[in-house]
Amino acid sequence: MSPGSWILLAVLASSLLPGLVIFAIAERRVALRTGLNLLGAVSKLLLVGWMLWGVAHGHAFELRLALLPGLDFVLRAGPLALLFVTLSSALWLLTTLYAIGYLEGSPHRSRFFGFFSLCVTASVGVALAGNLLTFLLFYELLTLSTYPLVVHRGTEAARRAGQSYLAYTLTGGALLLAGTLWLYSLAGTLEFTATGFVHGLVDDHRGALILIFWLLIAGVGVKAALVPLHGWLPQAMVAPAPVSALLHAVAVVKAGAFGIVRIVYEVYGVELAADLGVALPLAALAAITILYGSLRALYQDDLKRRLAFSTVSQVSYIALGVAIAGPIATIGGLVHLVHQGLMKITLFFCAGNLAETVHIHRISEMDGVGRRMPWTMGAFTLAAFGMIGLPPVAGFVSKWYLGLGAMQAGQDWVVLVLAGSSLLNAAYFLPILHRAWFRAPAGNGFAPAVGGRETGWLLLWPPVITAAMSLGAGLLAFIPFSPLEWVQFIARQEFIGYD
Amino acid sequence: MSPVLLPDLPWEALLILLPLTGAAAGALWPPAARAIGLLTTAGGLLLLAGLGTAVADAQTLRHAVGGWGAPLGIELRADALSLVFLTATALVGLGVAVYADSYFERSQARGFWPLWLFLLGALNALFLSADLFNLYVTLELMGLAAVALTAFSGGRAALSGAMRYLLATLLGSLVYLLGVALLYHATGTLDFSLLTQRLEAGPAARTALGLMGAGLALKTALFPFHFWLPPAHSSAPAPVSALLSALVVKASFYILVRLWLELFAPLSGLEGAGTGEVLGWLGMAAILWGSWQALRQPRVKLLVAYSTVAQIGYLFLAFPLLTAAGLPDPAAWRAVLWLVLAHALAKAAMFLAAGNLLRFGGHDRIPDLDCVAQRLPLTVAAFALAGISIAGLPPTGGFIGKWLLLEAALLQGRWDLVAVMLLGGLLAAGYVFKVVGHFFTPAAAGHAARPVPAAMEWTALTLAILALLLGLAPAWLLPWLDLAVGPGPAEAVP
Amino acid sequence: MSAAGFYALAGVALVVLGLYGLAVQAHLLRKLLAVNILGSGVFLVLVGLGGPADAGPDPVPHAMVITGIVVAVSATALGLVLMLKLTTTSGRPTLEDDAPREGPEA
């Protein structure tokens, strides 16, 4: 064990241990449970801050435990891993606060928060995994620990959504397992390296490598909701709002997108992926997903379903940026991992507030809600502007780098996709904003605010904070430790010679 | 551990004598049966620890009972392979015994303890036997004890399941014995080590292999000989179902492994090839058919029983892997032994959890499970964790076993096996989560619920957690399994 | 053909007969009888074949058969008890094929 490797275990344990203890806590011990949750979330954030500082100053954190003959359980905190870890940990704290407010008084909270913590442990493990086997372990653990959250409400619809979620993700897991084993039997190693570890196999196993690539991409593509593997995501909308936030921004979808990044960069390497002829089809698939998701979003009246299809579309920006395979497009894709998370979690928090406070689930019921809930809808508006790509919100930065990177790589068609997608984004977000702000409420208005506040503090602050962060990530994109700066730091490592 | 700490006792003989004595004492003096049963089962674990240290020092122990050696005397043998099965027996046995203590009413418990101890003695004796005929005798004793355990609580389903089971197990043993007769005629010995020296490839060996293989496959419930298993395993009382699925079917599999690794594989090339391939095909069919049937079952215990049919299939996938290489492939055998351990723990946990559900709601119909996730959280956790291991999902013992077996299959280019294993894993996840999904939903009509004793919930959960921990510990445990499949007599022959 | 070979062949014939009986007879008593015939056949093969042809008289098969007979008697006794209990509970001395699915839970 290298010195300092204990911090990797501590980062995992900061959510795993509270989670396990919370399972055993009686339902009514609210203060104890909340305390444990916050203790875990805050200490994880502190540990992550420490690692960020260390990695920025050139330290490497690595933990290696023997698991199978020739295969270790490896955790490694590099810049790329920390990008996802930081996102997950920061959003976990906010989502926990939100969930405490959202689930106040509802049953089975110990179970809920227990699995919630397991999910975050798994997604941090996915981020820190130093080889494909460790990645696979945490990836499957993420599937399993999310399932009880999807079926949390215990209704027949929730059960069906859970079955569909598992049918998709476990099949994906099996494909990932097949690809991983096949690769291992050829390469004899599964260790992620900055330029990929399969170069030596190209001459003898070209066909196999291409097949393995698609097996692995299909495996992670299910969670990343690449068309046609996206069917589970809109169905999973029956889960409570904090779970949607978890699925769409903190853990699940992000784990899939992050897997695509790992596979393209650190298993195959961008040059090899381009040489094998798999990068372009992946980019095309991502582009199709972007347009398809946006088109489907247009026709949803259920607010959460519209947001879900919007996620299908937006997450593929990450895959697109990665598959274009140039440094600038990569920056666009990777930074969108963070930006999309911030903006989408804001939107889901707001949707949850609408459902919880004034019982609005459909867009057609949103007329005039902006006057009733100005802060919530303000946050919503900011995030929606970001999704459309209006400056200076974070989404603009992503799209700018994606477009620039595509032109630099000679893939001008991507700019058309981006433009089309932005138009579609505007087409499905602006009508919502119009209804909320410029129409009069139908009938006898909304349930009145209690105590002069539009909703509880715990429900209000998280979306306001994440909306502010989305704005900040765009406005202050060039200060140290901003998502953009960090992603450029990563790009300098993945692409030799870029600065 | 150094041998200084432990006296040099005949551990093998004690492992057999202790439970048999306990069985006799419990039968003669029913009021003490419970205490004797629990103490004896727990004591077995200590004896096993003693045997383990002795085997670690000497690799293979031999013990001639009463000073009489082969051919007329009985010789016991303990090595790493027997230790794997003995360990599974001791761990699962202890868990089930604690569970059964709360499960049975006083009147039933008096029947249970002597029969269980008898079964435990027979199992231990089987895993320690060094010759073909002792294996037959122990196989029969085990079968009779298992049948009696299936039937002793009464009930039409249990009786008819037990009857079917009895006929199948007798037929299997007799066919096995016919093979033994042929081998004895050909070689004049029954002792494993002498047989390895004397047996030659030829029609006698081939016929004997076919007969013994068929008999043992019937007793192991390998597809298509599985017909007797679901009725027996699903109708027996829950602790008995756990013993049957986790241990009893593994015993005949153990004999098959012994025969294969030590007698027939060295003859292979022409001999073993076809048989290994056939066993592999049957294993694949068992995985697909058993999983598919499990998916269709309306009741938890039947579902778990069909899952056993499928999981037995995985064990048989190692046979063709051996044939392809021409030599025992340690990787494949290591994987199979791992799966034996993982399945024993997980399946026992699943049956015990099913028993809790049955006790709680008075039925085990899957769609009518009523919000048990809230009301029996420990049982639900046990079922789910064990199910995850059965489906081969990480981070469990089942995953490690599946990974090792997949790796072995891939290295030999057996894509058919890989595909079936992956598909079987998905089907298993399907049937496990079919049940788990209904844990969360309310039933159409509520049922009166009976309380479930804490010991019954905790034993199920403990076994499931052991199956889970198995997935975290391969680095420590694999060297032991390598000892079991390592450079044995089978590999000595080129 | 030697006498021993004849006994062995007769044993095989008994085995086949027993298998046939086990397969086609529905009544459980007949099934148990078939198993016993099958067992006798196996024992006959054991004694008839004996050890390797060149070796002299061999006590081992006899020891095996005696043990085997004891086991078979116990098994038959257990089978008969089961059969009687089953007949009392279900009213029929046969195995019903639908029993495992419809029967009451243990």
What characteristics describe this protein?
heterotrimer; A: 499 residues; two-stranded antiparallel sheet; B: 494 residues; mainly alpha; 21 helices
Quick synopsis:
The complex is a heterotrimer of chains A (499), B (494) and C (106). Chain A is mainly alpha-helical and 499 residues long.
Written description of the protein model:
The complex is a heterotrimer of chains A (499), B (494) and C (106). With 499 residues, chain A is mainly alpha-helical. Chain A is 73% helix and 3% strand. Chain A has helices at 6-24, 30-56, 79-102, 109-128, 132-150, 156-187, 202-223, 232-235, 241-250, 252-268, 270-275, 279-298, 303-324, 327-358, 369-372, 374-388, 394-408, 413-438, 457-475, 483-494; strands at 61-68, 71-77. Chain A has a two-stranded antiparallel sheet. In chain A, α9 (241-250) runs antiparallel to α14 (327-358) and α12 (279-298) runs parallel beside α18. The longest helix of chain A is centred in the middle third of the chain and has 32 residues, at 156-187. Residues 487-494 of chain B have low confidence and may be disordered. The longest helix of chain B has 32 residues, at 156-187. Chain B is mainly alpha-helical and 494 residues long. Chain B has two domains: 1-266, no CATH class; 268-494, no CATH class. In chain B, 76% of the residues lie in helices and 2% in strands. Chain C is mostly helical and 106 residues long. Chain C has one domain (3-93): Helix Hairpins, CATH 1.10.287.3510. Chain C is elongated, with a radius of gyration of 18 Å. The termini of chain C are far apart. Chains B and C meet through α5, α6 and α9 of B and α1, α2, α3 and α4 of C.
Radius of gyration of chain A: 21 Å
SS summary, helix count of chain A? 20
Number of discrete domains of chain B: 2
- Catalogue the unreliable spans of chain B: 487-494
Spell out the helices and strands of chain A N to C.
HHEEHHHHHHHHHHHHHHHHHH
Q: What strand line-up does the widest sheet of chain B have?
A: 1-2
Shape call of chain B: globular
Overall strand count of chain A: 2
What is the radius of gyration of chain B computed over CA atoms, rounded to a whole number of angstroms?
Answer: 21 Å
Most residues in contact: chain pair: B-C, 53 and 45 residues
Helix content of chain A: over 70%
Distance between the termini of chain B: 35 Å
How many DSSP-defined strands of chain B? 2
Please state how the strands of the largest beta sheet of chain A are arranged side by side: 1-2
Uncertain runs of chain A are none
Most strands sheet of chain A = 2 strands, antiparallel
Biggest sheet of chain B: strands, sense, closure?
Answer: 2 strands, antiparallel
